[in-house]
Amino acid sequence: MRRIVLAQTSAIFGLAIASMVVVLNYDVKTISPTALGIVALVTFAAVVAAAMLIAWAGEASQFSVSQGLALAVVALVQTLPEFFVEGGIAWLAGQDPTKIDLVIANFTGANRLLSGLGWPLILFIVQFQRRRNGHEGSGIALRPEHSIEVVFMLGASFYYILIIWKGTLTLVDSLIMGSVFFVYLAMLSKLPSEEEDPNEVLGPVPLTLVKIPSMRARGGAIISLFLFSGLVFVIIVQPFVLSMERIATLLFGGVLAVFFFIQWVAPFLSEFPEKVSAFHWARTIKLAPLALLNFVSSSVNELTILIAIIPIVFSISSGLILPVPVAAHSGEILLTMAQSFYACASLLSLRYGLRNALTLFSLWLISTLIPIFAYNNPAVLVGRDVISVAFLVLAGVEVFLHRGKITVFREFRQTVKEYVRGRGPRANGPSSAASKAQVI
Known about the structure:
Elements: H1 2-25, H2 33-61, H3 67-77, H4 80-95, H5 100-133, E1 139-141, H6 147-166, E2 168-169, H7 171-188, H8 198-201, H9 204-210, H10 215-251, H11 255-283, H12 288-303, H13 305-318, E3 324-325, H14 330-345, E4 351-353, H15 354-374, H16 382-401, H17 408-420, E5 438-439
Antiparallel strand pairs: 1-4, 1-5, 2-3
Helix pairs in contact: 1-2, 1-10, 2-3, 2-9, 2-10, 2-11, 3-7, 4-5, 4-10, 4-13, 5-11, 5-12, 5-14, 5-15, 6-7, 6-12, 6-14, 6-17, 7-13, 10-11, 11-12, 14-16, 15-16
């Protein structure tokens, strides 16, 4: 195991350092197309490498701090790579308003990639493993306490109605969404830990970190990973975005091609390590609820604090307190909100089924393929609005189908009473089998 850890960490650190050296010596705005391709590959790899380091540190953190705080720490850490990328794009947009489109592209793509691809793949992997092992079942059930994530995701989705109506993102939105996020973290910090076995949950590198005997040395190693990853992102993120922009223009031309690259390639790379961990958990079947919860929590983070940082970074970069105009892409925001509504509707009973996974994946895939086949014909993008309506209608259908079985709000109230306020029989942790997340 030591050899595996040494090989993995050496490769990741070596790649990250080499990437920083390359981007510091080349200007992606002026280099030849051949050199641009090499720099782009280097920056793509560096984003994945830095995100992997953050993922390792985040996974180790949940077993290195107090039980209640663990969930809050992991919830914040798991979307840090996307924060760096979104923040980098917002900084560029503050200096060049023509790049505001890319700000909307990245945050809408990041959100839709999680619930449209990530959530379904968790259940698809579980179903494949079940069939392979000869087991029955067709869904995943979350614990009652996980109603917190679902309720906050639903509330954040409703806030997007106001954003669409205003057509701007402002510092007031940052204050509101940031406050919501920190209330969310505060509530998570009151919950008991998942109490999973680190040997079962963690890969070689984070497991090695957890097993460091000295708490001070362990904490220093984890913090060092965060700091080094942050340095990599600070140096890499702008060349990363600019190289994607130039490559999209050279290969396909047009604004929509650049928009598509930033919308899907950037978040796919920055979220890749998180997905690898979650898919690994899903393969065990037993840890599938943890994998799904990981993505639900990330969806909350990206619907709240990721949006909150945009006006802040944009204003600092521009040197003025300015709103970020988003009205030109209200259709993209509507689709993101509609998909999020359907995802929340699928968890109203805290159970996630195959029908929901197939619906999310199918509509997400169609909405993603439309720009590929119609990027030279913007009029065809009306299909995107049709998908938005379909998500909203199907969310209503889910509410109807769940009538009489909607438990999420009752469990949310009970969780607040028992854990947040410290009242009730479960305040010291889950005490019955009914409170356990499970595959169904």
